[in-house]
Design brief:
525 residues, mainly beta, six-stranded mixed β-sheet, five-stranded mixed β-sheet, 8 helices, disordered N terminus, binds CU-O-CU linkage, binds copper (II) ion
Length: 525
């Protein structure tokens, strides 16, 4: 299927930016191949992965930065207002489609699973970058196989800049450092294990009963694999930028760390090993109004957060380590299955160790103001008095929202919204129909827009677990993804602008998404 020619884009109502501008002009043209590859990740055998490879056909050289050695895709860099054309070429043995996570684009450009293309096919994307400066990303979105394809290696960053951000003089070049965090399981032959790897070592997967080792090295196997396929895949090996984590030398200067949690299911609670407070400068939807100080930050799957880190705060030669800290209320496969994961959700682990250089500290200054973020005005929502409720539900071994799982072309009356209006939505994680009473965190993501978080509340029963994460929730600023902890209700304010059509909202824990925790919403004129 070929969509999104300039003509079609015009009829889809792409915003026209300045009358004098040739609306057909393409600033950046990228050919993006999704293809099998082999990468040397560990000593021994190379790892077979699927990965994105980009070719810049037109545009500034900085518009596409090849991945630095691991399996991750290239970094796409764009300025707000630029017109992009991206041709996806599917060289995988199965169908796929790419979603630009966090971007405000027409529904035909958003990578909905209904647009998935088969092996050997191409899909043309064309859109104007219309997001705030920030860290976005792209990944596959075919229905039922997003988890598998992301796990195989398909993901890349999409970084947007604008004039406002440029004027701040934030750390740039090598001091603008993206860290894409993921978890994986490797088999003895250095190959990724996803849900037991249906095509590998079938004999070894037999005979594992309810007590099988879930989420660990031997996650494979009938019941265990089926459970992980619903509850989520947790890896014991942390990967950074598609590679094994390695010590990173830094100068005694300020850095901008762009953190993306591209794990399938694992939630991160990020903090410094020596408890140095964090300075948060951006969320998933770009810069905050002003930097915030936090002892730690929660980063659920799919979400991004940016830190301003001044390594002059540490003595020369010291080795501060960014860690994921322990928290309660994570996915508890052990409790479900009577087995033990080798690295449980909510367990502590190192993410990235730095070594601070020996030079004299350079006095970099964190700007006191970063951007303008209007306070949310929930009273402007058309349903201010009665927020729409989206209950995360579990039926007969199927996830759902309000009891309904994914329906490719369907959206209910509740899921129909009017263009140009704002609505209040409430995600409820009360554990309706939860198996064995187990409630787990979810990472709710809405396509096509950025929303604001209006309020949260948590049930008394889960208050204890919640206390281990709540000070790390950054609700300020703009978001496309929000962590909803067990027993929690989160209210968000959404504005449906510019584009009508069918968009997704779902849990970004990819095994949840693939097994029903995804629905459409429809924007009507
Ligand atoms: Cu990043 Cu629908 O997902
Ligand atoms: Cu979920």
């Amino acid at each position: 299927m070929l969509l999104g020619s300039a003509g079609a884009a015009a009829t889809l109502g792409l915003p026209v930016l300045g009358a004098s501008r040739d609306s057909q002009q393409i600033d950046t043209h990228i050919e993006l191949h999704a293809e099998p590859a082999q990468v040397q990740l560990r000593s021994g055998a190379a790892t077979r992965v699927w990965r994105f490879r980009g070719e810049l056909l037109r545009g500034e050289p900085g518009a596409l930065e090849a991945s630095a050695g691991g399996y991750l895709g290239p970094i796409i860099r764009a300025r707000r207002g630029q017109r992009l054309r991206i041709d996806l070429v599917n060289s995988l043995p199965e169908s796929t489609i790419v979603h630009w996570h966090g971007l405000h684009v027409p529904d035909t450009m958003d990578g909905h699973p209904r647009f998935a293309i088969g092996p050997g096919e191409r899909y043309r994307y064309e859109f104007i970058v219309d997001n705030r400066a920030g860290s976005y990303w792209f990944h596959p979105h075919p229905h039922g196989r997003t988890g598998k394809q992301v796990y195989a290696g398909l993901a890349g960053l999409f970084l947007i800049s604008d004039n406002e951000e440029a004027a701040l003089g934030l750390p740039a070049g090598t001091r603008d450092l993206p860290l894409v965090i993921q978890d994986r399981n490797f088999d003895a032959d250095n190959q990724f294990i996803y849900l037991g790897g249906a095509d590998r070592e079938p004999a070894r997967r037999g005979g594992m009963g309810m007590g099988g080792m879930m989420g660990g090295r031997m996650m494979g196997g009938g019941m265990g694999s089926m459970m992980a396929g619903m509850m989520g895949v947790l890896g014991e090996q942390i990967m950074v930028n598609g590679s094994m984590p390695a010590l990173r030398e830094v100068d005694r200067r300020a850095y901008r760390l762009r953190l993306l949690n591209a794990s399938n299911t694992r939630t991160l609670k990020l903090g410094w090993s020596d408890q140095t407070p964090l300075r948060v400068i951006a969320t998933g939807g770009g810069l905050l109004a002003a930097p915030l100080r936090r002892d730690y930050v929660m980063l659920p799957p799919g979400d991004r957060i940016e830190l301003w880190v001044d390594f002059a705060d540490w003595a020369p030669g010291s080795e501060p380590t960014l860690r994921s800290l322990a928290f309660d209320g994570g996915i508890d496969m052990g409790r479900m299955m009577g087995g033990a994961s080798s690295l449980a959700d909510g367990a502590a682990f190192d993410v990235q160790r730095f070594r601070v250089g020996a030079e004299t500290a350079h006095a970099d200054k964190l700007p006191a103001r970063l951007s303008t973020v209007a306070a949310p005005q929930p009273r402007q929502a058309v349903n201010f008095g009665s927020p729409k409720v989206f209950d995360i539900t579990m039926g007969m071994m199927v996830w759902g929202i309000n009891g309904a799982s994914f329906d490719m072309l369907g959206a209910s009356a509740l899921e129909t919204v009017k263009l140009g209006t704002q609505e209040l939505w409430e995600f409820r994680n009360d554990g309706r129909g939860a198996m064995m009473g187990m409630v787990m965190p979810h990472s709710m993501h809405v396509h096509g827009l950025q929303f604001q978080v209006v309020s949260r509340s948590v049930s008394r029963r889960h208050a204890g677990d919640y206390a281990t994460v709540e000070h790390g929730l950054v609700d300020e600023g703009w978001h496309d993804t929000v962590l909803v902890m067990p027993g929690e209700r989160v209210r968000i304010l959404l504005r449906f602008e510019d584009y009508t059509g069918l968009f997704l909202y779902h849990c970004h824990m990819l095994e949840h998404e693939d097994t029903g925790l995804m629905r459409n919403y429809r924007v009507v004129a």
